[in-house]
Amino acid sequence: ITLTTRVLPVAKTVGDEVFAGTSNGGGALRVRVSRPAQETVVARIVAMVEQASATKATTQLFIEKIEQRYSIGMVAATVALFVIPLLWGADLRPTLLRAMTFMIVASPCAVVLATMPPLLCAMANAGRHGVLVKSAVVMEQLGQTSRVAFDKTGTLTEGTPQLADIRPLTGSGLRDDDLLRLAAAVEYPSEHPLGRAVVAAARDRGLALAPVREFGSTPGVGVHATVAGVRVAVGAPARLLADLTCPTAAVVSALEEAGRTVVLVLRDGVPVGLLGIADRLRADAAATVAALSTMTGATALLLTGDNPRAAAALATEIGIDDVRAGLLPQDKVDAVRALQAQGERVALVGDGVNDAPALAAAHTGIAMGKAGSDLTLDTADAVIVRDELASIPAVIALSRRARRLVATNLVIAATFITGLVILDLLGHLPLPLGVAGHEGSTVIVGLNGLRLLRNTAWQRAPADS
């Protein structure tokens, strides 16, 4: 389902609500439209994105707040330094030189350059490593992150069902490959996502599949066919057998507790094995969650539309304690705003259409580039182009380093300006020396910011946090 991002199919029966944008797995489906197009969930998602984007406060850099007032004050002070001494009978030439020197050394060029080069260089460095940060303001905001929330499907996971467990039952006489070969042969003609996962696993193992006869498929139940004279059925345990025996039920329960979707295999009506199918976790998910928890001092948060059991199993595997499952788009927005009301600076990582409103509401929205929908990519403040979760703690650390360089540059610029202005007011600063000091401070802060262009700035980012 597009709106809940469940990668595994969900059975629907007569009378169930079906969201617009839902994909029908197989068989004919008759749906009664109960709302006009402008009231569908997708339309409401677009409206929520627009609303959240309009009300989202944009963080302004400190220098942008004071630059205009400072410039006006500087010009006013320059005029005063020129006019007032003349009114008291001072000579024109030294008075003009002092006023000109003051205007040069008090000019905020170094202050302006103190902020943008580090942020722009950090953006360029992040871009070379597969992270698109859409503005300097976003690069600054990333470093303020105090809590990170993740979507599940397509973000922490790869978004594709894959075979995770093969469990031949005692007494079946089958090995793992035998059970998989039998199930894959029956599933081969099927278009069901779970069937494709089983067939893909058999191909990966190089298993030869026997031809089948009398293939049939029952939506919501499973598939059946004759393989080498044996009648084989593959499908949902609760639908294929009304009464599961205790050993089989125990295995089914254990797999479901681990967050698997369980598939039962019957041979001539007798259970011979179980398959566990899951959405595979990204290889760097656990390390990323651990790095972000260390960096922010708070555990990451899981916000997902998937079922609570699957969400809890994945969260346990990667070390997330705070899990919110079964969420619709508005629920994710509410969760983000609740954290913000507690003073948290929330960075949300997602990929689906259902994540777009929460991405817009979050302090910083980060989208997965490869699997992300168009609406999500447009809404997000930053895009992980290569879908490498490890890039998230790296870019946050890079942002923090850029913020430290901005602060350092502001101190350097303020020190130069203050020192040169004092010397000029005391009457001991020649104009050439004032120009050299002003231009020198501008060059120093500019070069200091350019340090973030080096590859070592990114490589050292996780350890530099």
How would you sum up this structure, described in words?
- This protein is an alpha/beta fold and 465 residues long.
- Among the domains are: 76-119 and 403-464, no CATH class; 161-280, Calcium-transporting ATPase, cytoplasmic domain N, CATH 3.40.1110.
- It contains 19 helices and 13 strands.
- It has helices at 41-55, 62-87, 92-105, 109-128, 136-142, 152-156, 176-187, 193-204, 237-240, 246-257, 285-296, 308-318, 329-341, 356-361, 374-379, 391-425, 431-450, 455-459, 461-464; strands at 131-133, 147-150, 157-168, 212-218, 222-227, 230-235, 261-267, 270-281, 301-303, 322-324, 346-350, 364-368, 382-384.
- A seven-stranded mixed β-sheet has the order 1-13-12-11-2-9-10, with helices on both faces. The protein has a six-stranded antiparallel β-sheet with strand order 3-8-7-6-5-4.
- Strand 4 and strand 5 (222-227) form a beta hairpin.
- Helix 4 runs parallel beside helix 17 (431-450).
- The protein starts with 40 loop residues before the first helix and ends with a helix.
